[in-house]
Amino acid sequence: MVTTPSLLVDRLPPWLAHVLRAQRGPVPWNAVLRGALAAAPLLVTVLAERPTAGVPAALGAMLAGINDRPGSRRASVTRLGVPALAGSAGLLLGTVIAAAAGGGRSLVVLPAVVGALGLLAGALSSTGPVASACGTQVLVAVVIGAGMPLPESGPVRALLFLAGAGWLLLLRLLLPSPGGLGNGPYRLDGEREAVAAVYEAVAVLLLAAGGPQGRAGRAALSAALDHAQDALAGPRLRRRASSSAERRLHAQYAAAFPLAEAATALAWAGVRLPARIAEGPRGLAAAVRTGGSCGPLPAPARTDAGLRALDDALLRAAAVFDRPAGVAPGRHTGHSGASALRRAWSAAGLEYGLRVAVCCATSTVLAQWLHHEHWYWLPATTVFLVKPDLGPLVSRVVCRAVGTVAGAAVFGVLGVLVSGPAPLVATVALCGALLPVATRHFAVQTAVVTVLVLSLVLLGGEPPASWGRVVESLLACGTVLLVGHLPMPGRRGHGVRAALDTAVGAAHRYLGHVLDAPEDHALRGALRRDAYRSLARARTAIDLSAAELPPVSRHSAGSEGVAGALEQLIDTTTACAVQMDQRAAELSPAHAELLAAHLSELDRARAVPAG
After folding, report:
1. Residue 291 in this model has a pLDDT that exceeds 60
2. How confident is the model at residue 238, as a pLDDT?
3. Would you state the pLDDT for residue 420?
4. Hey, what's the torsion of the CAs at 249, 253, 254, 255, to 10 degrees?
5. CA atoms within a 13 Å half-sphere pointing along the CA-CB vector of 547
6. How far apart are CA 13 and CA 4, in angstroms?
7. CA 167 to CA 152: how far, in whole Å?
8. What is the dihedral of CA 348, 352, 353, 355, to 10 degrees?
9. 490: exposed, middle or buried (C-beta count within 10 Å: 0-12, 13-18, 19+)?
10. Neighbours of 16 (CB within 10 A)
11. Is the pLDDT of residue 8 over 70?
């Protein structure tokens, strides 16, 4: 028997298997082009014989490039712009800290300030992906601003950093997406593709009903709905959708909710469905992409509540698609700034913030003790290593070590073959182009970033010292690995428990609404989205914890059982909502018994103590 590489990976311990896994998908050529063009400000400064001025701009573009992920232009304003503002402020703050510390060796002031900032940034990072990117850029920019010797003043560095990130954001807003022209308003191509993907995911789930891929299909549908919600919810110049095309797109997204609900109920029933049942949602997906009408849609047999709900949803969607103008966005259950602050100062936020603080302060002390010049590399490396967004702790450390050695080796070869500022600018442009693909694996991303940063260091007038950077990166790896496994006050695993508690609360709100006010479909859809989205975040936290070393992973033992019981409860609630729509808000005794059983199972699973 031939064993495939994927089977070999599955047989490895989770913490080691994660190192060997990489994301797959087509090459994002538009992002590759943006990454290459992001080096334009650096080229301008080199041609003007001011290469040091291009270093902050290139750093801003690089950090923005790491955040440049697929999605709508509207969402990219927040995803790239807000962290760039935070990084610019961090760079200015770093120069102020360096001046206050006398610009020399400081074993007390700099570590204390960096540690305090690490506590704040780490706690805020736990509230969401944009906040996490902001925390990373603030900390990296602070240590670079305090440690990198550049002739430009602090305010000038901050403006240059912001200009570099702003240039990449401008490219993101202006350059067309692949296939985005000719199918409706140019500015909505990312949003259209996100909404079309929801209808495609409905079709996939219908085909997977009754088979082993049913759960994966439901998770993919939930992810597609999340992505479309984020794509449509970005900043606007006006409070409401500002054009008929945008209102129409919002209406098409809202029309997908009943379809998603019916498809989830059919998948929950576990009955195989004919292949033709997917033709309707796929026709709607094609209509979203082309901007035209959906045309005739095949109607399923109305033999049970799920199929009747699917038929009704298709009819309502067809009516929405045939309208020349849509409706304004519906209500949603967004989180307020106050709730974000509560999450930041919760046990989970403080646990992560405390580890970030200890790691940053320790690495700064170590760097200052070893040498007071060019010390910023070690704490800057530490900041990326303490990011759980990039994978489990051991996986991050191994990938960082391998990627840094590989990047330093590549840069060493380049240094032998070429010299002068022009090849360095070309290297930065090439690394910027590779970055959107390299983000699929942390080791590859680290290698690309290492080559890019070493090129900027040389352009900034510092000696290359490639292998010195390797030693400092390995010291950062050891520091983070040690601190990450140190016992801290209180119990560990707060992140998983907090994510599960949030998901349980969302599920109970959804169930309560279905039982108390089943006729309010708008709020029901919003609560269902919140429940499934919270469940997805909890599963992400559980998977991340499970891939840690046993001393860490054991603190979240039993959480998978809670997530499984919670998933059954939410799916059954969705099936009950569909059934109640067809029975005039009457809950059948069989469904009531199932809900009671799932609630009891959830309570039992939550009562099991973690390891």
Report:
1. yes
2. 44
3. 83
4. 100
5. 24
6. 17
7. 20
8. 140
9. exposed
10. 15
11. no
- CA dist 429 and 444 (Å) reads 17
**8 token code pair:** 């070999």
Which pLDDT band, with edges at 50, 70 and 90, does 589 fall under? confident
User: With 80 as the cut, is the pLDDT of residue 1 above it?
Assistant: no
- Of 402, 406, 367, which Cα lies nearest the Cα of 383? 367
3-state secondary structure of 310: helix
Distance of CA 406 to the CA centre of its chain: 26
| 65-116 pLDDT, tens digit each | 888 887 778 788 888 999 999 999 999 999 988 887 766 567 788 888 889 9
Number of Cβ within a 10 Å radius of residue 434? 21
Which residues, 6 or more positions from 490, have their beta carbon under 8 angstroms from its beta carbon? 347, 351
Among candidate residues 459, 462, 405, 472, the one with its CA nearest the CA of residue 58: 459
The mean pLDDT value for 517-539 works out to 89
Average pLDDT over residues 14-26: 75
101/523 Cα distance (integer angstroms): 54
- Residue among 288, 285, 309, 283 nearest 298 (CA): 283
Find the distance separating the first CA and the last CA of the chain, reported in whole Å. Answer: 38
Global pTM exceeds 0.70 = yes
Instruction: Tell me the CA distances in angstroms from 243 to 187, 196, 238, 324, 325, one per residue in order.
Output: 11, 19, 10, 12, 9
Residue 364 Cα to chain centre, angstroms: 28
Q: CA–CA separation, 313 vs 212, rounded Å?
A: 25
pLDDT digits (tens, 9 = 90+) for 462-496: 776 667 778 888 888 888 888 877 776 655 667 78
What's the count of helices (H) and strands (E) in the chain, helices before strands? 26, 0
CB atoms within 10 A of CB 364: 27
Contact 161, 83 (CB under 8 A): no
Q: Which of 436, 445, 350 is nearest to 396 (CA)?
A: 445
Distance CA 428, CA 460 (A): 13
- Bigger pLDDT: 110 or 388? 110
Quickly list DSSP for 527-593: HHHHHHHHHHHHHHHHHHHHTS-HHHHGGGTTHHHHHHHHHHHHHHHHHHHHHHHHTTS---HHHHH
Query: What gap in Å lies between CA 76 and CA 83, rounded to an integer?
Result: 11
| The pLDDT of residue 327 is above 70 | no
DSSP letters spanning 381-445: HHHHHT-GGG--HHHHHHHHHHHHHHHHHHHHHHHHH--SHHHHHHHHHHHHHHHHHHTTSHHHH
Of residues 120 and 324, more confidence is placed in 120
Residue 525 CB contacts under 8 Å (≥ 6 apart), including other chains = 254, 257, 258, 261, 330
CA 315/CA 176 separation, integer angstroms: 34
